[in-house]
Specification:
Length: 211
């Protein structure tokens, strides 16, 4: 277990995974719980996380990701997908969950529900997907940090054909659209990228203090 700064210095976008090394159930659950517990606007969680382990399906997905080896060589492939339709019914389902967890009447949350419904109805279908995408990237960052702190390698990936991924995984009928990939596992001993110095602008170049 590393502290956060050490973990973020250690992590990198893993280019070469060791296919013989697999995450334990507990390690995978750590990443999935980080995704599930991630922050999102209003707490609406407009996402699904698809864990792909089937070798045949992963081979098809690799072909739809320009043959990038991480797709098949990582221990698991997690596809982060957005909810395309965040409508009044979706909000009602979320509010019902809030009421149950917090043990309050649904009617007591009407103002909260109306605010979220108003926000959702003000967006076009493309606007909803764009908003959902911003939320799913928050979850991605949360998972990357949790993985690094746990000594798990990962590689955020946008280089894939979303339409082919959606077709292969049957996401369209679920009202979902793939947005970003997260292969997770352990780096190969000969992954040269692991030895490269981390390149970041200095704190003075990226932090603006308003006093």
């Amino acid at each position: 277990m590393k502290n956060t700064t050490e973990a973020l210095m250690w992590r990198y976008a893993t280019k070469k995974f060791d296919p013989s090394k697999k995450l334990s159930t507990e390690q995978l659950d750590t990443i999935l719980e980080a995704l599930r517990l991630s922050a999102s606007s209003y707490g609406l969680q407009p996402w699904k996380f698809i864990v792909v382990t089937n070798p045949e399906i992963r081979a098809k997905l690799r072909a739809a990701a320009w043959n990038q080896a991480q797709i098949t060589d990582a221990s698991q492939l997690i596809v982060l997908a957005v909810q395309k339709n965040v409508d009044a019914a979706y909000v009602d389902r979320f509010v019902a969950t809030v009421a149950k967890v917090k043990n309050v009447p649904v009617d007591a949350l009407k103002g909260y529900a109306d605010m979220m419904k108003g926000s959702a109805s003000s967006r076009t279908p493309e606007g909803v997907k764009e908003w959902s995408s911003r939320q799913v990237y928050i979850a991605l960052g949360t998972a990357l940090t949790a993985a690094a702190v746990s000594g798990i390698d990962a590689c955020p990936m946008e280089g894939f054909d979303t339409k082919q991924f959606d077709d292969i995984l049957g996401l369209e009928k679920l009202g979902l659209e793939s947005r970003v990939l997260l292969p997770v596992g352990f780096r190969a001993a000969d992954d040269e990228s692991a030895q490269s110095p981390k390149v970041r602008f200095s704190k003075g170049e990226v932090v603006i203090e308003v006093k």
